[in-house]
Structure formats: C-alpha cells, structure tokens
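Quiz preparation item.
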C-alpha cells in the first residue's frame, strides 16, 4: 500500500529544520548505500557528527509518532533513525530496492515500509520526483513540505535528477508489527471504518462488531 500523509511536520518545525540545515555538514550519500546501490546513488546526507543532527532527527521522529494516520497504516514496531538527504542540481538516485535487513546486533531490523518526508516545497527545485514501480506501472510523487509518502520496502524506486534548486528530504524504514502487507492493509481499512462508524453513529452494535474484528485480527497477526 502506498499512502501519502499531509502535515506530518508543522510549519514551525520545518522552518527550524531548514534553519538548522543551512550551515550543517553534509557528506557523500554513498556511505549509507548498499554495495550495488552505491553505483546509482548521487546525493548528500547530513553528517551524524554535525551538532544539529540529533535535534533534526528527533523532530522528524516526533512528527511520525504524532501522526495517527501513520501509526494506523504502518503499525511501527521500530523506526530506523532518519537520514536527512540533500540533492543539488545534477544529483539523483537510480533504480534500487532497499536492503531487507538494516543495522546489526541488537539494532538489527527488517525493512517492511520505506518513507520519504519532504522538507522543502516542490517549487524550490525542479526534477527530484520519487518514482515507485508498482503493478499499475510507475507512479511519480513530489509532495509539499511537511508531507510524507510511505510505500513497501520491496518496491523498486528511484529519485529523478534534480535539474535546478535543492531537494531536502528525510528518509527511513520501519519494521511493522504486521509483517504481511495485505494484513496491514486489511487492518488499516477496518480501523478507518471503525472510526468512521463511531464519528457518524456513536457506539452501536455494528461498531462493536467491527471493533472486535479489528482488535482480534491485530492480536492474531502482530509479531514481536
């Protein structure tokens, strides 16, 4: 399931992040790419040694957990520390699939869902579209600042060449409590239906039955 979510970060948070990044140190993005992705990755990433890195990543992560829609759709068990990526004119990220396993030791996690959170407005740069390969063909995304897209980590995807301006995004990966994407989608639709029923009619017998199914399916499918 591909899902676009608006207003993950507030305008004030976006201003704070962009101000912090204005003079921050960025390094070659190949440092965090898999062995074959290095061949097609041409971007920069915020250095983990930069003084602003911790606060910027904490702001992004706070916005994720604050988003009810993100929590409903993704069911996060763990979220990898976000990477802050910068694309100047001429930079791109060719077709690749994200690594299935990330980290090591106690930090090892499986990537179920990938996400891109846009940190600056689409009018500030040309090109730089995120292109995801789906069963319906390629789909292209270039969202407004503060919005994010989540998509299966199993997908081939790329970032088109930026031809003018600078593209700023936060990217990361989630290990979900629900490994199977079809099961995640069923739970998301049931939860959406449950909330809609309650907002329209209150606590009815129909609401209780949907709530029961949603809860028991979560109990059945959740992995720890």
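Solution:
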């Amino acid at each position: 399931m591909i899902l676009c979510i608006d207003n993950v970060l507030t305008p004030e948070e976006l201003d704070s992040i962009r101000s912090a990044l204005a003079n921050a140190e960025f390094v070659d993005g190949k440092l965090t790419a898999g062995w074959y992705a290095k061949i097609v990755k041409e971007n920069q990433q915020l250095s983990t040694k930069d003084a602003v890195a911790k606060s910027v990543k904490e702001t992004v992560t706070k916005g994720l957990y604050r988003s009810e829609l993100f929590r409903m759709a993704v069911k996060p068990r763990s979220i990898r520390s976000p990477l802050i990526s910068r694309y100047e004119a001429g930079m791109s990220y060719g077709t690749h699939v994200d690594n299935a396993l990330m980290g090591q030791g106690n930090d090892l996690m499986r990537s179920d869902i990938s996400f891109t959170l846009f940190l600056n407005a689409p009018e500030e740069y040309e090109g730089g579209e995120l292109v995801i390969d789906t069963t319906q063909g390629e789909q292209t995304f270039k969202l407004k600042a503060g919005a994010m897209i989540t998509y299966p980590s199993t997908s081939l995807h790329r970032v088109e060449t930026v031809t003018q301006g600078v593209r700023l995004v936060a990217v990361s990966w989630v290990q979900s409590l629900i490994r199977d994407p079809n099961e995640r989608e069923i739970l998301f639709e049931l939860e959406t239906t449950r909330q809609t029923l309650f907002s329209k009619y209150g606590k009815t017998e129909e609401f209780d039955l949907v709530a029961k199914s949603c809860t028991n399916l979560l109990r059945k499918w959740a992995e720890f």
